[in-house]
Amino acid sequence: MQTGKRELQRLIAYEAARILTELRSDNISYACQKAAAKYGVTKRQLLPSRDEVENALREQQRLLRGSSQSDSMHALRLSALNAMQALRQFQPRLVGAVLDGTADSNSKVRLHLFADTPEDLLFTLTDLQIPWQEKQRRMHFSDGNTESVPCFLFTADGVGFELSVLPAHNPRNRPLDPLDNQPIQGATIKQLQQLIETVDESS
């Protein structure tokens, strides 16, 4: 029974990776649900972990894109680092596909920022002469609440950015990953710098 479960999770992981590649999306939770539906799976405990899907996606990207994948990742992480340094007053955290290494040239740089009010960020974006669009994203938090979080989108040098503004007064109350309900930690400026340096040294 256990072997059957593991094989099913593997199939769902690879199908989810295919969907992500086909849709040029980084919404792993949506891709897993769609892949699970193909195999008639409705129980959350039968879904693969985020790591399994990301590993399947990296494998497909290596086969399909070769060295262009690592080049895209390097460029996106440098763009993320530049943006985080410009917004360092908001204690930025890099999250999503650019951090975990499954992004491509069409992926957005997703940052979690901490501010007393969204207007604090807007003043900074205005000072930086960055035109933006606003939307709301519903997030589940580690304290059990679900909230609509303001997100600001813009494009700089051909790279898309999505900035989610979280309350500065309670930074430990992290948004939860919709796939496994674990807190999203993200990478600080220093951690991203170390990641870029480590990848450069190994290449």
Q: What secondary-structure arrangement, pairings included, does this model have?
A:
Layout: H1 2-23, H2 28-38, H3 50-65, H4 67-86, E1 93-95, H5 97-100, E2 109-115, H6 118-127, E3 133-140, E4 146-156, E5 159-167, H7 189-202
Parallel strand pairs: 2-5
Antiparallel strand pairs: 1-2, 3-4, 4-5
Helix pairs in contact: 1-2, 1-3, 4-7
Question: Would you mind describing this structure in some detail?
Answer:
With 203 residues, the chain is α+β, with helices and mostly antiparallel strands. It has 2 domains: 2-65; 67-202, Beta Polymerase, domain 2. Helix content is 48%, strand content 19%. It has helices spanning 2-23, 28-38, 50-65, 67-86, 97-100, 118-127, 189-202, and strands at 93-95, 109-115, 133-140, 146-156, 159-167. The chain has a 5-stranded mixed beta sheet with strand order 1-2-5-4-3. A hairpin with a 5-residue loop joins strand 3 (133-140) and strand 4. The N and C termini lie far apart (41 Å).
